[in-house]
Specification:
The protein is mainly alpha-helical. The protein contains four helices and two strands. The chain is about 35% helix and about 5% strand.
Length: about 70
Amino acid sequence: MLADRLGFDNFFLPSPYAPGLEGGLPFHRGDDPRYDAEFPGHPLTLIRRKLARLAPSVRLDERFKALPAFE
């Protein structure tokens, strides 16, 4: 629906996490949370809502936080 509304050429974007990435899974405007209100039952909308409620209660063990960064 969004690709039709926004135009297919404007729908797919470079990944904000890996701008030079070619192929693989695309990043598209449908991933933007601003569209969640239009698609309240979409799985991505539902998981974002659940994560927003869960995130404030997450606590990391100090031993885990002391581990070296994953690269």
